[in-house]
Fold these 3 entries.
Entry 1:
Amino acid sequence: MNAAVENLITDDLMEKTFLFCWKKISDKEEAQDLAQEIIVDALLILRSGKKIENFYGLFWQIAHNKLIDFYRKKRPVKISLDDMGNSLLGFDKSLGDYIKQEELDLLSKSMTKLANIHRDILVRFYIKNQSVKEIAAALKLPTGTVTSRLSDARKNLKENFETMENRKEKPEKKKSIIDFELEFYGDANQAWMAISSLIDRQILFACREKSQTVSQLASQLDLPQLFLEDSITKLVRANVLFEEKKGKYLTDFTIFPKSVRRKAEEIDRQICRDLKIAERYFEILNDMKAELLKEEFYGNDFDWEYLLPYFIIRSDREFGKKTGGDYLREKYGKGLTDRFWRNFYLSGWYEDEPESLSKEETSLIGPGYNFNVYTIPEYGHIEFHNTINTMHYEKDGHECELDLDRLDWLNSGNTGLYLELIKNPKKTLSEKEEMLVADMLKNGVLKKTKVGYKGTIPVISFAQVDKWCKIWQEKFKELSIEYYDALYKAQEKIVLPYIRKDLLWASFWHVIPLGNKKNLDSMLMQYAIDNKLVRFAEGKNASCTAMVLLCE
């Protein structure tokens, strides 16, 4: 985000937004939520790059619309703050001699930077005129605890207030907003949905190296604590932030500078060239052709060049995450804390170089293993794999593309029929089945022959794949260890300094080989295409290569 944009979302605007919401709906928690929604929507519009002639007019229109939505969904408005006295927050009467009437704006901003427990105590004591005993009864706390919190709240409020007064006398240095991209592997839907706003990502970025309290975060991000507390709770529940010590939070994944990624990827490419990884990999895999095709599965009579994309993507999982991973863990991971416990892994990437220095090479092949899972009564558990998560690839110097909806070609509605047809190609079809077959023919899932219908997608049992995996682990072991050992040593000074020791294994799997555009899948598949080892049928919808159906 550039400086001009940063100057639009100011402390003053955030404060006015919160006060606008609080005045209209008189519930601090609901006002907090509504103000955060308004700020985030405005940030998203600014970051979209759209031309905005009157930002503040647009901003308050967003606020007005959000308020209308709130009225539609929530209960009627409570008592207005206007009824609380002639001061916006009622603080002009009792907080001490150091506060003057003309300083109320700064005081209001100081108030929003307090933690909830302190803000609540002050509102009850000074605005609602509750006694310590009444507050203790309402909050179900000992009176001594209330007295202590009230003292702390006064102290913190005064410190915040005096800090802001000092800022008025000096030009305020704007804090840059650091955003980052996320990459996930595994069952990451909950985490993906939790990291939903720029504020969430700012919290995670600030806590990436050492744990922070909410107060420290509010100071670093220059945001009111009330804008942070709900986000922190949400991120902890999603297992992307954790409470390292009481009240101190630490990000539970690694966030890397993109310059590190670029350097590491170049090292990775050089190691692959020096060790001739692709050439040696395909020597091993092609030598296994007869061994793989002698097994009983539907598709073992298909062309090797047509089946090879699946074997490439599936076997390199054993080469990397199993064989290479186990080796690294055994040799370099002893004695390290293991936080490798989630069913998903993720990493973040932020740009740390000027735009002119950050141009990345494009890589057409995407990473493998995109799949759907369902259950069919007659066949049980089914998985349909599109093992190249690819939209484009390069062939004979030209860009080609595979359809985005490849993973929907077989589904719970037509897979049973597909399995019937490969057993009985001359099956008499009902009217509904004829429609399903027409769709499968269109997508190249089936083709019509003189003897009936023929499937183009291999069908393999889970037991068969497990058997192959054990074979691949053994066949690729020597090459995998050589590659991963060289890679680890080369990355010690580039990548490892950015990974906390407690996250080494949770991060390392996701970044070596680095990134989801130039990883092992991409390198091997593009090598196979360049050397005409695999066959992709022409046309957007004509190829089912690298797609398999796994059955029990």
Entry 2:
Amino acid sequence: MKTRNIFLTAIAAICTLFLVSCSNLLDIPQHGVLDYNTYYQTDEQITSADVAMYLEVRGWEYNVKLCKAMLTDDFWAGGSMRGDNNNLEHLNEFTFDAEEDYVQAMFTTYYTLIYKANVILGHVDEEKGAIARQARAEAKVFRAFAYFDLKTMWGNPPLVDHELAPSEYNVPNGTDEELWGIMEQDLTEAIASGALAEKTSLNDTETWRVTKQFAQALLGKVYLWQGKNSEAAAQFDAVVSSGKYALMDDYSLIHRASNKHNCETLFESNRIHDDNNSFQNFSMYALMTNWRMDKMNWPTDTPIMNTGWGFRVPTKSLYDDFVKDEGVDGYRLNASLKTLDQINSELGITLKSPVIGEGYFMWKLRILAEERGMGNDFVYMANTIWMRYAEVLLCGAEAHLASGNAGKAAEYVNMIRSRAHLPALNGVTLDDIKLEKRLELFGEGTRMQDLLRWGEGSKMAKNGDTYPELQVNGQIKYVPCGNPAYGFKPGKHEHLPYPATEIRLNSAIEQNPGY
């Protein structure tokens, strides 16, 4: 518990520093400006810079998780009715442009994390001791974490590997070699440093920090996306052979607040349960993604939080793939989705007016009433999971299959299937792996980049043609959206646009095709 107390103390120190700075803005000289030549010298100062990276990643939840969900075939934008959130509809229907707010927000938050990592790497001397060495190693992992998303979603974003002087602000697009290269270098150095945390055992629930195994898994993904399959397989195997992670027996409990830092999660953003300061766990994402409760009649004893805006509605396509793999009463299906009939019969919840959807409701990532902090709908106590062991196994299976080791690929896939109460496969194909990955990880922010990597953007070609309106009686009415420019367009939507604001400020960036 000592490390968690340090984490909270560091947050308090940051908040105190902020308040002091604000109260002294009118003083001369201005005390709120940090001198990097004298700051980041003590363990406390270094820890404050380190904590800033963790807080930045926790802030990704709203923009990153929600945006990635919209850019797939797994979800409808949802909401009260069409027009409730035009920005999310633009993403879901592929009618967005370079002015899109959510795209700007994602792009900005990635570079904010890179900046915070660069501050540490530019000003924290590893000779200061163990805390300094750990902060530098974590900064390299976080920088690679941000660049992985930037590279796989934007293509060739600017490479910024240090704090920029004003004369350097116009940074051109990076090259494939430069961008993959910095990720490989950062992760390889961080792993070899010996400074990253590691779990002490399979059931160690205290390790909230970035670990060596998370860095190895991320490096495996960096290799896999480049087609370096043997190198990727070796990294995923290293995580497996560490013996520090395993699949949870009960799939339905992975994401619950009562199971933080369980044996399956490699990295998650921490929410500390503190009733005296519950709003540190403010989560607009929870409200945005919970069921559209104002359209429902619900009993007072329902386990689901009774407030929500319904902006992440599962598709029939997703449900049909579950049935294809597991049947209509599959174990993982029942732990993942509920039909309208099921929420009627099992929870006593009925519709009182039409909602957007095809009769399927998120269950795996449902928001439970008991997980509200102090009973407040804006406060959510469950951690945000960024990577778990199941993804390691499925990425490892793909890497092994591509590098000629079909036996190991089948072994990893069958570990996933065994937990899902499914029979083992004698051999696996890439299509088998794709299907298992869609079902196992849906809603966790992996599918968009997978579809782009696999060249399967056509699965979203009809996004925006019509939207489904679920009637009170369970019938579905498909309503034309009325925009002829809908859907994923090859040659354009393989990449997101660089935000128009960035283009206006940085003339050296070349915009992606089609925008």
Entry 3:
Amino acid sequence: MIDELVKAADAMRNADISAKDWHPKLKTLPKVTAKAPCIRIWLTGDGHIHDLELISSELAVQLRKYEPDLGRSLPGFNVRPLYRLVKTDDDIKKASKGKAGEKLKAEWTKEFLNTSADERANDDFWEKTRDGLRRCFGRVREDLEKYCNGRLREEETIHKFFEIARKMDVEQFQEEYSIKLQDKIVGGTLPVVLMCYFVTAEKKQKEDSDSREPVPKFSVFLDIKDYKKYPVAHPKTIERLNILLSGGETGQVSNFGDGDTDAYGMDTAALNEKFPEVTLPLLGGVKLRSQVKVVPAQSRYGFCEAQTFHVGAESRKRTKRALEWLKAPERDGETYGIAGDKELLFAYPSVLPNKKISLTKMFGAQQDDSYQKEDSFKRLAASVIEQLKGLGTENAKAELEIFSLRKMDKARTKVVYYRNVTVASLEQASTAWHRGCQNIPLLAVRDKNEKTGKSYPVEEQTVFPVKLYRYLNATWKHNGQRADTGKSKVKIFTPTDGLRLLLDRPNNALAAHMLSHFMQHAQGYFLTLCRGTGKNESTSLPDKEYYPGILGLLLFNLGNKKEDFMKESAFLLGRCLRIADEIHRLYCEVERKKKDGKPDIPPELCGSSLLVGMTEFPTMALDQLRIRSMPYIKWAQGGRDKEDKGGLVHYWMKHWSAIADQLHVLEWPKRLTPEERAQVFLGYLASFPKSEKSTTTDQTGSDNTTEQGEKNE
């Protein structure tokens, strides 16, 4: 990760962009939510608790705490709920259900507070919190005072805070905190989760036997009532503390080898110090590099940690500032964005522009995932390329740095993807990507407006590269329901696989791998979509605007263009099944009617019922189609009254004859490849050329024959 961030730091320096350099031991507070509040504790001059209040999420993100060791910090630290209560499994389930559950927990808490103090003290759930507070009020405070020693004025907030913190007693703090918290909860100004934690007997036993078993914790921040200008919980005070810490830091200089510079030409101070940590959205705390002696692969040759790669204090500061600048909230969708589960994507031009450019949003990565209808891949890609070209020759020729970080486990974060591309190659790749998603014929797929009940043609959209994995991993049952629920989720593909397909050339092997799995996972989806299309109905399937286009994209990357595969046997076999369904449906609309006059259409028509067989053994499936469709073909060829469907029957029989003639001269494969299976589905879903004037519409009022068989680019 260091190499990628050094390049970002160089780009920032060249663009005269400066970022605040936070001391590595000055850590951000945990994210504030309704279930994880942050409490400000106001202290009097003699170290007693005066009041408690909630800290807003806006203020919390501006505050930091000095944390030399994990879980030991000041002026902010974490505490457990005061009490742990055992409930049954059924009670816990009830308490987890929305507002009703919160109301139930509030009732339990009030009942518990009405019990005697001796009964409440039976389960001492604050023992570990007290141990931590002794270190916070003791060693952590002493270390922090050493940094600030001799440089604080008596009237300063930080100086007064140290005076008060020396007077604090842990047992007294717990007692006063408990009393104040109870009053606030009864008064309804603080949430009950701060007071009581509800568990099953089994969970309680696990927590008692294993100290690593997770338990809820909440963030608190100490403040002083008697301050002059700014309280402790104020950005100005935190900034002052950062200056004191940075000015008091003395790194031990250690040199290795012949030179006195590190790998990036900077000084070699503090080589043996720990690397700084940066808190990232979604991923949490991330260290820029971590190599430890306990790992044999890193220590077997006698070189580990600082000896493996020399990175001095100045280089570490530069990389830390660069990562913090890239992940700033205001640059969401520009320099960074959430690519997927536990993965962040970063992208920036090596020559940083003055204007905002939605680079990561173009790839499909954005934290809040808020894409407007007009934010299509084609429009965003064109906008980004145009902006980069319009910034001058230097920017147009600059390379784009792209890398992705993924949380591998609780402790490790890894760079899983890195590429640098030119603006010209990105333009070429994005154009090819859009053309690939348009590599399908015009489809007859329809959707329904839930308010009006009217159906309308689905407009195909280009899938965003980092979102492609969602559709490739999704597995579907033959009834159109998702199969990957709960723990059965498939994780074959990752967000960066879409970027590899976009930017890496050649990518035939990756495209073939994707198509093979996609045809397995999404077969149920396409079967349901085809059944609905054949019956001229709108299915409840989601993302109909993306799924067919993904088939076209993967076929395009394998060299199968629509102008070629639409003439091949697999595509024509799919069209043959569709025509059989159209004739079967017309037969039902004329000959099979219910008492209310509506057509009695079976759940599966004769063509779509053979789709699975057609994707496996086309010769056998076509033979079965001949047998099943014979009554309907004879009906269509006969002279019986067809009500107002005569024109449509003639139209579909004409196409039946034309496709039969084409299939007669083509060679059929014995077994279909994944590419040919995709072509079968596209052939079924494709629309047909517009009919002659004599062709009429069906009883639903929508045309059975759509505009054309191919899409115009």
